[in-house]
Write a structure and sequence with these properties.
The protein is of the alpha/beta class. The chain is 29% helix and 24% strand. Helix 5 links the parallel strand 7 and strand 8. Helix 2 runs parallel beside helix 9 and helix 4 runs parallel beside helix 5. The longest helix is centred in the middle third of the chain and has 19 residues.
């Protein structure tokens, strides 16, 4: 089963059917309905342990792991982060509220955002320990109300390195010269001067070059640029440095084996260590933001087949979810694998496209994937569904977001209930 490493760590095949943490996926689909997302805690725990071990063996100073909330954030997930003392990267007021409800302490909430609204900034100033400043206009807006808060957050400046990493689509690149994110070197220097003149707590540099990349070597030059700025700004002995995140995962059998976390961490740790030594800088508190590579493989999406269509050489498998719970194909042509949950050894007889019920030709989950013959009513499982799916879901066509189940140690727990039509109507006011 070449596809098995795409699934969570606790996945087993029992009587030709898939089970995770001891639970039959088909039975979970029957009990909770579909579409259904399941998350395996053991996989999440193992991912954190892998990062921690790599950092301990390669970096000689303090280091932290920051969970990127934009990958997927719920109250339960936020609570899980605190079992491992993770920081949580929150983009805006909504994610900060979820983190706070999940008992993430102020000192571990990191506020991001390219154009933070007044409400976003107010929430960050109240509840975040650190704000990553994206631009000079934002910095000026932070300075005005900061005297109204007893506890001032630390500020990091987001650098635009002018260097992208190689990803499968330009929409997942963030570090190139024409990107909307961050500040140029000249803007960073001006921002640092502004912070000093106005008594703001500036103690870090941050950058991000892209999401789901597999080669860490483009990070080296960007880290060098960041360290040059750190020397120019002169943070002193205690400062923070974050080269972002974005380390990739394998989504299909062809992309296996999984990208090596150790290679990624070692490249960063060695570059930072040698770069600081060469510049006479103290080693910073190093922060990594491995959102996708922590959570993506822990999640599996389950759908039920509702109809089959054949149009010449084209076969359609129509299921009960699609672009409203997973828009990644529609956004940038993402690829996945797929397995019939109760018949994993059934021979793959031909290619089919798996699509949803929504009124868009782009409502496709997987285009042209090798599949066995399936029947109406069967459950299919799509692995590596834990990141950037539910967090980008919508109510298009009146769709209701799916339920989410947490699996651990023989226990299944509903952590997000399925949305209902009452939820849609509750927000609306009539004429």
């Amino acid at each position: 089963m070449k596809w098995l490493p795409l699934f969570p760590d606790t996945t087993k095949i029992v009587d030709d059917a898939l089970a995770i943490a001891g639970f039959s996926l088909a039975s979970l689909a029957d009990e909770y309905g579909t579409p259904l997302y399941v998350y395996d805690r053991a996989t999440l725990d193992h991912s954190v342990a892998g990062y921690r071990a790599s950092l301990a063996s390669t970096y000689g100073a303090a280091a932290s792991i920051t969970y990127a909330g934009k990958a997927y954030l719920s109250k339960a997930l936020a609570q899980w982060t605190q079992f491992h003392n993770l920081w949580v990267d929150c983009t805006g007021e909504g994610e900060i509220a979820i983190a706070k409800a999940g008992a993430v302490p102020r000192e571990r909430i990191l506020s991001h955002g390219v154009n933070k609204s007044p409400a976003d900034l107010k929430s960050a100033l109240q509840f975040a320990g650190t704000i990553v400043v994206d631009n000079l206009d934002e910095l000026r807006r932070i300075q005005l109300p900061i005297t109204n808060f007893q506890s001032h957050p630390s500020l990091w400046l987001r650098l635009l390195p002018g260097l992208a990493v190689e990803t499968h689509h330009t929409h997942t690149q963030t570090g190139q010269h024409d990107s909307k994110f961050g500040m140029t070197r000249e803007e960073i220097v001006e921002a640092a001067r502004f912070c000093r003149e106005h008594g703001l707590t500036l103690n870090g540099i941050h950058f991000h070059q892209g999401s789901n990349f597999h080669d860490p070597s483009p990070l080296i030059k960007a880290i060098e640029l960041g360290l040059d700025l750190a020397r120019e700004i002169n943070f002193g002995n205690e400062w923070h440095f974050s080269p972002g995140g974005g380390w990739g995962v394998a989504y299909t059998e062809e992309q296996l084996p999984q990208p090596n976390i150790g290679d990624y961490v070692q490249t960063i740790a060695e570059t930072v260590t040698k770069g600081c030594q060469a510049r006479g800088l103290s080693l910073p508190h190093l922060h990594l933001e491995p959102g996708r590579s922590l959570v993506a493989r822990a999640g599996v999406a389950l759908y039920r087949v509702g109809a089959l269509k054949r149009r010449g050489d084209k076969t359609w498998i129509l299921v009960d979810g699609g672009m409203t719970d997973n828009p990644r194909y529609a956004l940038y042509g993402a690829r996945y694998a797929c397995v019939a949950a109760s018949a994993v050894s059934r021979e793959r007889s031909g290619k089919a496209s798996i699509a949803g019920p929504f009124c868009e030709s782009g409502d496709i989950l997987i285009d042209e994937v090798w599949m066995p013959e399936v029947e109406v009513g069967e459950t299919i499982a799509i692995p590596v569904s834990g990141a950037y799916q539910l967090s980008m879901s919508s109510n298009y066509n009146g769709a209701r977001r799916p339920a989410v189940v947490w699996l651990e140690e023989g226990r299944a727990r509903l952590i997000q209930r399925r949305e209902t039509t009452d939820d849609l109507l509750r927000r609306d006011e009539g004429l």
